[in-house]
């Protein structure tokens, strides 16, 4: 049975081209640095984001936490949004791995106020204060919104003024670039390091990249080993990553178009409230509280119809389009939703 996968664009299966590339990949021991396919990926990937070097990591969370671990001294402070992925969805790893304190700021649809960021930077040398070790931004944001280049540049300039590095959680940076109509390098020029995923929307089965200066990546490589991320014949994974970056980045606009279509159709269902202005990448967030239908029950009913979804989080439902969700699937998704609600009302 074919399932329509709406839980996340992380749940996508690799394309046939990726399967073929993985099967035929030339490999070696990457810890020794002699895996030719991994070397090719780590030479190709940083060019896409305008950085000197890059490092393969098992996941996006691993990449973000490796960045904090590499940039920061233990006990230093990291400034970031209170609703960003590092804070909300990474299991408090920053306190365990990097040993840092997170100084969270309220955001406006993911954007921190540059004035507030400046005010929060520890400029005073005081025996009672930690040092500001890093500022983190996220683009595209976990709520599906895309940060403006103006906001990013203002925060980055403030950081440079005080010689503080900036890390970008760019898990879906290519989605953000597609929305803004710019090359991804126009976004990543406002950070010193960036993590971007190969497995979110790009269909690779495993992996993310951490990119930055050559010296930063050399340091991060040793920290990666400490964290257990030294992989052996990793070229099988790198082969899929190369296909993801070369073949899949350019089609992300299709996912957003399908998300807009899905959002428009869902908004026609009584009791469903979709904020269309928030559909900036491939995510559709909506409120179904007025229907009175339990989201956990909805998960069960959708599954019976061959559709995988997650229950609500924070009062919001999220459907995510991806390569394997085609435009022709959307009427079936919407009609299934209508039928489930209709049975409940009767």
TrEMBL record:
Keyword Lyase among UniProt keywords: yes
UniProt keyword Lyase, yes or no: yes
InterPro entries the record matches: ArAA_b-elim_lyase/Thr_aldolase, Low_specificity_L-TA-like, PyrdxlP-dep_Trfase, PyrdxlP-dep_Trfase_major, PyrdxlP-dep_Trfase_small
Record domain Aromatic amino acid beta-eliminating lyase/threonine aldolase: where: 5-287
CDD domains in the cross-refs: TA_like
A Pfam family annotated for this UniProt entry: Beta_elim_lyase
GO molecular function, one term: lyase activity
Gene3D superfamilies xrefs: Aspartate Aminotransferase, domain 1, Type I PLP-dependent aspartate aminotransferase-like (Major domain)
Keywords per UniProt: Lyase, Pyridoxal phosphate
EC number from the UniProt entry: 4.1.2.48
EC top class, as a word: lyase
Cofactor(s) listed in the protein's UniProt record: pyridoxal 5'-phosphate
Transmembrane segments: none
UniProt similarity note: Belongs to the threonine aldolase family.
Name under which the protein is recorded: Low-specificity L-threonine aldolase
Organism: Clostridium aromativorans
């Amino acid at each position: 049975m074919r399932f329509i996968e709406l839980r996340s664009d992380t749940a996508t299966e690799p394309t046939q081209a990726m399967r073929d590339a993985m099967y035929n990949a030339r490999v070696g021991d990457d810890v020794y640095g002699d895996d030719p396919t991994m070397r090719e990926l780590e030479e190709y990937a940083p060019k896409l984001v305008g950085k000197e070097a890059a490092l393969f990591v098992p996941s996006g969370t691993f990449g973000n936490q490796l960045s904090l671990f590499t940039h920061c001294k233990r006990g230093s402070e990291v400034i970031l949004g209170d609703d960003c992925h590092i804070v909300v969805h990474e299991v408090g790893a920053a306190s365990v791995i990097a040993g840092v304190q997170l100084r969270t700021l309220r955001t406006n649809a993911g954007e921190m106020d540059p004035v507030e960021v400046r005010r929060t930077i520890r400029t005073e040398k005081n025996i009672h204060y930690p040092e500001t070790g890093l500022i983190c931004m996220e683009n595209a944001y976990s709520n599906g919104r895309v940060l403006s280049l103006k906001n990013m540049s203002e925060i980055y300039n403030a950081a440079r003024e005080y010689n503080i590095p900036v890390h970008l959680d760019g898990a879906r940076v290519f989605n953000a670039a597609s929305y803004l109509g710019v090359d991804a390098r126009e976004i990543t020029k406002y950070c010193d390091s960036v993590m971007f995923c190969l497995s979110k929307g790009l269909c690779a089965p495993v992996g993310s990249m951490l990119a930055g200066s050559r010296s930063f990546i050399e340091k991060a490589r040793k920290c990666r080993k400490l964290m257990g991320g030294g992989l052996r014949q990793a070229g099988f994974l790198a082969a899929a990553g190369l296909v993801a970056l070369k073949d899949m980045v350019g089609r992300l606009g299709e996912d957003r178009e399908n998300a807009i279509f899905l959002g428009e159709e869902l908004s026609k269902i009584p009791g469903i409230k979709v904020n269309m202005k928030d559909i900036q990448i491939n995510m559709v967030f909506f409120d179904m509280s007025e229907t009175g239908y339990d989201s956990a029950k909805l998960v069960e009913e959708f599954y019976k119809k061959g559709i995988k979804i997650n229950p609500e989080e924070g009062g919001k439902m999220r459907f995510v389009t991806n390569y394997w969700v085609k435009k022709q699937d959307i009427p079936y998704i919407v009609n299934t939703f209508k039928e489930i609600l209709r049975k409940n009302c009767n």
